[in-house]
């Protein structure tokens, strides 16, 4: 993507290359921020529909501008910093969370050759960035100088680390089949139509990945770090105005990222379900449709499934998903070695 823009700008000199990098970043970040605003709206609408309510319906047609009104309200409010808080870390923590949520999108291919950085180790990059996300939450809990916030931060750190292990083993199952860490290569390996998508062969680990993604993004039924009944919103309890908004935006950007990763790993990425449709509808539209479907799944789980207790959450991660994912790594590795699946053997 950067090289294409560099060529478009004239292809001479480091300054134009720098402009091409900036243009490619803005081409991803600006639509992503708009998508996050509408994701919040649709999340509320889906939840309202399940409960037979109307949801946001006042600001703009059908309430479509509600998220922008909420953002303006948060932007205009005063940032209140607790007297005993570590002010520097208190303000840096939401910036870290938001920034990490955005830079994860650098390796996501929206169509063939359309990615800011088409890294050969794209999967490792995503794992590394998602692991760093724990720091923003830990820092916010510690810097708030509140026991509620600190307990919420510790919960979140333990939860994210626990379920990252399962996600890592699920990714290994895909990698032994495809033989590449590059996200574009994983999509190309699923070319040929809906029957060639990984969601069929890797259905058991797809389920594990989806549930682990719910826990990784602190979504219900695993929203224990911000359990309002006992922790009064957890690590976010002392935050207001734009600092709170950055946490909120980062959370939804991560949900969309997980939806995109699942679409790429298991649902053919930018490919249409039937190859004939690729000639009529661009690849990025198919990827958008798949991301929207996975986001709808996230929203429906939030509406239907009651919250877990913390001991149930940790038991599921360490005593169920960890051994299960290890067993599937062995099974899929054996299938790849004997040539039953994948491109290696």
Automatic annotation (TrEMBL):
Give the EC number(s) under which this enzyme is classified.
Answer: 7.1.1.-
Give the way it sits in the membrane. Answer: Multi-pass membrane protein
Could you list the residue ranges that cross the membrane?
A: 15-42, 88-111, 123-144, 165-191, 197-215, 252-273, 279-299, 320-341
* UniProt-annotated location(s): Cell membrane; Membrane
The answer to whether UniProt assigns keyword Cell membrane to this entry is: yes
Keywords associated with the record: Cell membrane, Membrane, NAD, Oxidoreductase, Quinone, Translocase, Transmembrane, Transmembrane helix, Ubiquinone
Instruction: Recall the GO molecular function terms of this protein's record.
Output: NADH dehydrogenase (quinone) (non-electrogenic) activity
Q: Which reaction does it catalyse?
A: a quinone + NADH + 5 H(+)(in) = a quinol + NAD(+) + 4 H(+)(out)
Asked if the keyword Membrane belongs to this entry, the reply reads yes
- Function statement: NDH-1 shuttles electrons from NADH, via FMN and iron-sulfur (Fe-S) centers, to quinones in the respiratory chain. The immediate electron acceptor for the enzyme in this species is believed to be ubiquinone. Couples the redox reaction to proton translocation (for every two electrons transferred, four hydrogen ions are translocated across the cytoplasmic membrane), and thus conserves the redox energy in a proton gradient. This subunit may bind ubiquinone.
Subunit-level organization: NDH-1 is composed of 14 different subunits. Subunits NuoA, H, J, K, L, M, N constitute the membrane sector of the complex.
Which family does this protein fall into?
Belongs to the complex I subunit 1 family.
Name of this chain's protein: NADH-quinone oxidoreductase subunit H
Which species does this protein come from? Kordiimonas lipolytica
């Amino acid at each position: 993507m950067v090289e294409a823009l560099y060529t478009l700008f004239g292809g001479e000199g480091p300054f134009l290359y720098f402009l091409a990098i900036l243009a490619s970043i803005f081409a991803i970040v600006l639509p992503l921020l708009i998508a996050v605003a509408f994701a919040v709206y649709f999340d509320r609408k889906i939840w309202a529909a399940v409960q037979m309510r109307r949801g946001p319906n006042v600001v703009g047609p059908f309430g479509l501008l509600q998220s922008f009104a909420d953002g303006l309200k948060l932007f205009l409010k005063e940032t209140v910093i607790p007297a005993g808080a570590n002010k520097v870390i208190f303000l840096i923590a939401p910036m870290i969370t938001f920034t990490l949520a955005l830079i994860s999108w650098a390796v996501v291919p929206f169509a063939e050759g359309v990615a800011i950085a088409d890294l050969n180790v794209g999967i490792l990059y995503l794992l590394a960035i998602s692991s760093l996300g724990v720091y923003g939450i830990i820092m916010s809990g510690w810097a708030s100088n509140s026991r509620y916030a600190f307990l919420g931060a510790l919960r979140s750190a333990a939860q994210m680390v626990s379920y990252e292990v399962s996600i890592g083993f699920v990714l290994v199952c895909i990698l032994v089949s495809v033989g590449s860490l590059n996200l574009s290569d994983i999509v190309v390996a699923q070319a040929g139509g809906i029957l060639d998508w990984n969601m069929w062969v890797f259905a058991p680990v797809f389920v594990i990945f989806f549930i682990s993604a719910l826990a990784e993004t602190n979504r219900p039924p695993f929203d224990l770090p911000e359990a309002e009944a006992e922790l009064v919103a957890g690590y976010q309890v002392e935050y207001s105005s734009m600092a709170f908004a950055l946490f909120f935006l980062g959370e939804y950007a991560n949900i969309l990222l997980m939806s995109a990763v699942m679409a790429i790993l298991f649902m053919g990425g930018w490919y249409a379900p039937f190859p004939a449709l690729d000639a009529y509808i661009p690849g990025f539209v198919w990827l958008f449709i798949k991301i929207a479907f996975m986001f709808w799944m996230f929203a429906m789980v939030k509406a239907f499934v009651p919250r877990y207790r913390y001991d149930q959450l940790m038991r599921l991660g360490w005593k169920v998903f960890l051994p299960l994912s290890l067993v599937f790594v062995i099974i899929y590795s054996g299938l790849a070695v004997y040539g039953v699946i994948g491109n290696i053997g």
